[in-house]
Amino acid sequence: MSRPAAAVDRVIKAYDIRGLVGTEIDESLAADVGAAFARLMRGEGSQRLAIGHDMRDSSPALAAAFAGGVIAQGLDVVRIGLASTDQLYFASGMLDCPGAMFTASHNPAAYNGIKMCRAGAKPVGQDSGLAAIREALITGVAGYDGPPGTTTDRDVLDDYGAFLRSLVDMSGLRPLRVAVDAGNGMAGHTAPAVLGPIDSITLLPLYFELDGTFPNHEANPLDPTNLKDLQDYVRATGADIGLAFDGDADRCFVVDERGRPVSPSTVTALVAARELTREIGATVIHNLITSRAVPELVLERGGTPVRSRVGHSYIKALMAETGAIFGGEHSAHYYFRDFWGADSGMLAALYVLAALGEQQRPLSELAADYQRYESSGEINFTVSDATASVDAVLKSFGSRIHSIDHLDGVTVDLGDGSWFNLRSSNTEPLLRLNVEGRCAEDVDAVVQHIAAQITATGGVRERASERAQQ
């Protein structure tokens, strides 16, 4: 069936399909997307497709409808059932077939969506498949006159856990008490399978019950309020480290033994340093909002840093183009060449646990080795005219601007150790601001100056900066 372009455009985002269940996404749409994706993949030579889903109430039915659309196009379906997004990527890599994951990641319970990839976990984004799927949904997916595909079930959870552990040497570590906040999301399913078999780790679970209504807090650790329970839990249990995952468990946030967040930039630098010890001279990708400590450290360790736009489709494309060993983003997405260039928060967690357990210092001291600057964290402004707001900000700095580039929004170097990036959201009427400087006072001064300019053009600041969430 054909669909109105406006309705299709509401759910097709920059990197996936996502919307409100019932009003924007339903089983009929899922079936059509399945057919469109299968037709696209069949044209590229694929013969089967893996499908996984998260714990949301709507996910099983949507996944089943999608599978029906795939089968009708002649492709076989491998159902892996309950899964994290990186577990679906593992299935795509291990089975060498395209994949689809039903999840709305960190979004509230009323939402759901579809993340898709090609064989080997290669990304599907606007320029690599979503535009073609959009066109098929609007014009109607052409039928297939061949035999329908088949359906099989395959549990890959234990294989996924064993594969991740094979990539990081976890032998000889000191005992670690590891608190994990799954936020009632898929880490409650995957953390025991990955971390449970490691003798040196005592797992301290928090909100492991799979519940797509998220009764305790949203499964969005990027919001500092959603880290509070883990911070309190780490301090109460005497844990050596805390790990928080989002709803589909592809992102991992780290909390030290004092309950203080360790920034994703610091985690990126730590993992990059470890990867460079086993391949000197390797390339490491970092997005343009990541701390400048990351490229500095990569250069010091003999590696080659490559800067990227924000977003997994850009990072993954650069990973493939450059053969990079690792990539990291400020949003706690971590990408590994050994994981088909895809992102895995659980694999990043293993690297941090190995680094912590092979020496005696607490995590707060270990992390300090990789942090050189202060940061604002991401600050959002609701704006009616993003261009006018950005122009006002740039004009206000005048001769203070040392250099500027437009790789993704505007990145401005103020020449005194401070810099900022201001970019529009891909999906919302927001401007996103990130500031870094040599000290907290410098960062606060730049934030206040920019906020005043955006407010003067009618913008509204969404949330105060949280320095802990760098």
TrEMBL record:
Domain Alpha-D-phosphohexomutase alpha/beta/alpha: residue ranges: 11-128, 159-259, 269-373
NCBIfam families, alphabetized: PRK09542.1
Domain called Alpha-D-phosphohexomutase C-terminal: residue spans: 378-452
The UniProt record lists the keyword DNA-binding: no
GO biological process assignments: carbohydrate metabolic process
Name used for this protein in its record: Phosphomannomutase/phosphoglucomutase
UniProt xrefs under CDD domains: PMM_PGM (cd03089)
SUPFAM superfamilies hit by this protein: Phosphoglucomutase, C-terminal domain, Phosphoglucomutase, first 3 domains
GO molecular function, a single term: metal ion binding
Family per record: Belongs to the phosphohexose mutase family.
Metal-binding listed as a keyword: yes
Cofactor(s) annotated in UniProt: Mg(2+)
Keyword terms: Isomerase, Magnesium, Metal-binding, Phosphoprotein
